[in-house]
Amino acid sequence: xxxxxxxxxSSTSPPRVTKRKPGTSKRRWLPVLAxxxxxxxxxxxxxxxxxxxxxxxxxEALQWALPARLYARPVELYAGAHLGAADLVDYLQRLGYRExxxxxxxxxxxxxxxxxxxxxxxxxxxxxxxxxxxxxxxxSGNHIAYLSGRAxxxxxxxxxxxxxxxxxxxxxxxxxxxxVSLKDVPEALVHAVISVEDQRFYSHYGVDPIxxxxxxxxxxxxxAFVQGGSTLTQQLVKNLYLxxxxxxxxxxxxxxxxxxxxxxxxxxxxxTAYLNEVFLGQQGNRAIHGFALAAQHYFGRxxxxxxxxxxxxxxxxxxGASYYxxxxxxxxxxxxxxxxxxxxxxxxxxxxxQYDHARAATLVTSSKPAVSGTGYPAxxxxxxxDLERDYDADALRTxxxxxxxxxxxxxxxxxxxxxxxxxxxVDRRHDEDADLEAAMVIxxxxxxEVRALAGSRKRGYxxxxxxxxxxxxxxxxxxxxxxxxxxxxxxxxxxxxxxDEPVEIRMQDGQLWQPQNxxxxxxxxxxxxxALQRSLNLATVDLGMKLGVEKVTAMLTRLGYGKExxxxxxxxxxxxxxxxxxxxxxxxxxxxxxxxxxxxxxxAVSTAQGTPLTWYGIKTEQVADPxxxxxxxxxxxxxxxxxxxRTVNTRLQARLPLAGKTGxxxxxxxxxxxGYGSDLVGVVWLGYDxxxxxxxxGAAGALRVxxxxxxxxxxxxxxxxxxxxxxxxxxxxxxxxxxLERNCRETLSLxxxxxxxxxxxxxxxxxxxxxxxxxxxxxx
Amino acid sequence: MLRILLxxxxxxxxxxxxxxPPPTPAPVETLEVPSAPAPTExxxxxxPLPTVIEPRGSAPEPPPVxxxxxxxxxxxxxxxxxxxxxxxxxxxxALCERALRIAPRDAQLWYxxxxxxxxxxxxxxxxxxxxRALSFAGADAALTRAIKALLAQVASARDAP
Lengths: 780, 161
What we know:
The structure holds 2 protein chains of 2 kinds. By secondary structure, chain A is α+β, with helices and mostly antiparallel strands. Chain A is 36% helix and 18% strand. By secondary structure, chain B is mostly helical. Classes of the chains: A alpha+beta, B mainly alpha. The interface between A and B is large, with 64 and 58 residues.
């Protein structure tokens, strides 16, 4: 029999039942649980400490990558300004000004026929700030007749409106925002956001369990998603630091980060970051962040000008910017707005009366052209080329620079509106497989600022920029350089007789060059001025060969052409390739009477805060003799009166005198016109991208387009004063080679340099002259 | 003798010949600033004329000073001078250019800009803008002298070691 190890029990005593003490099994697990709990607590504490550190570091250093903002040239109001009432209204609408019956605040205007009243907005320019001011402008035709303001503004002689924003250079993230401080945010927006997103924002600690429960209850009652449970702090953390994963770990992390953020930073700081960070829409590849930019995007006005219903509409976007987009889904946006208004009323942020009034308002979104990164692409390319000399791409994309350009938005719009149709009207070939293309450059005649630019006949075209890159032979556009070179020498004046006769020139490669006039005729003896006005090729070659081609190529450089030109005789007839912008530079120098000012598209650059960084001022250098310039301009004015541009003489009658030159290349492949008044210079090129014949001379094509556009822009007549050393003299109307054959019955008066009057033998000035001629004859 | 006779005959014939009267030279175009038409509504601000009261028996008061309404360029000139006086030469130049956009043929403004450039030691720009001023100075002898003096200063500064 086996022996048991336990003590023997009497077989006669009842079996003893062993009872356990209560809780013994739980006590065994307690240490384990406690250890786990402590471990979890420690781990959680470490995790929280790490989050706290990261949050503190990152939030303090929070700096959004801000896009550079580009502005057009601002409109200035003053008595005598060249601006019509309709143009001013157009400009105000581009700025998002609201039309009212009575102007009561910034961003409002009232237009009453020839009188416009407005209140401007504050704006920080690169050269100082402009405060908001009330102004009344009275118009007479295309000019401001008077300007007046309120008594407290004193004498009002000049008002500068804020500039239109035309483009941004966005960060690689595609995010765009207009950062604002909390003090600049309307209180109603703060109330709207808090009432719909986080009612207990100011009392919770980053996470709101009560809010979560309330949201759930509200959603259940509504049977739809009407409230979220995340606090503003949690939403901010999610947007700034976390991905969009819907995992438990991520939610815990979000909650911890929200608590840490709330612990370290004030409610106002958190709210400010939220109001600037929240995603509120998309425009192409541009993400709209923050309420200030959303105000501009949806309503075309600054945040501080929005009404209560508009602010409520924005507040409702945070939960679904695309779903509640007021531009695309106005009914949904209105419903959401009303939800926000209801919550605001229920939480006593607005009265019932305010609620009723706001709810009854019709949703009206912005109709002004959307600003995008690709606005005015042809002009923007010129801007970038100016900027990249001084700023790297990263600075342009991230530092919120403010770039003030020279673009005149009204001028650009008018040009774009006319260009395509005007080109259609002159197109003779109407090729189905290719479009006749165009480029146009318009500059300020006095400063060299580029006012408008078109790289194609099509508005907003983003492809090949012909204005900057289509290098084509310029043909007769080169002739002013030839004739100016001649007029600067003592050997030539406007009545110098040139031989418009056939000529053969042996080139360096041995080939024979035999230029011809356009109509393959010859004119014989012609005056210098006449040869230029009628663009006679043979006379020009005669002049250029006497002068020396090197003088002409040197003149091209002086006028502003930046590339080397080899001195081949064919240069005299324009066998040199230039893009329209380069031609504009040459004629800019002519328009300023021989002062070369490099063309520019950027005026100044400042920081986001308004501190000026770079200012691209006027540069001007005298490169041509003033008297010779006057003589040249007199001749170029004649191009419109009796020369190759006379076909538009009647149409431009009220605007004359203007100065200009037609240009046509071999086989009519390129049609050019360059012309200027006292205020503007315009260059037009027409041609095909594959260089096929257009069938158009400069006069039949580009001149007509130039006339259409520059007439609409109300180009002003030239008003050059002759230099002191200019005198007028009379010569026979028709040029002859022999002075004895001259006929003074018909004469014309021409300007001459006082020290280079025509020889007495040629002049028809007076009796004495004739008598002297006879004396000479007898003596000889 | 024969020669003298022939000359006399020819002179007499010349006197009888129909010769066109000397044409009047082509008119020199003068700048005309269009006067603004009368406003259709009263402006909100008028510049008041001061009232002059003559005390009995005293010498007559000098004629009242009539304040000339500011023009856009005079408004900007005030700001330009203020900027120069505080050493903000870049800003003064920017304001000058703003004024030139309004009045591009104003020789005084070009001269002012040249002066600013000279203060900034930007001699090339000072030279160019001064010559531009000269091209618009016309018959203003005093201004012409001042511009030429500035050009001489620029030349001298350039030549200085």
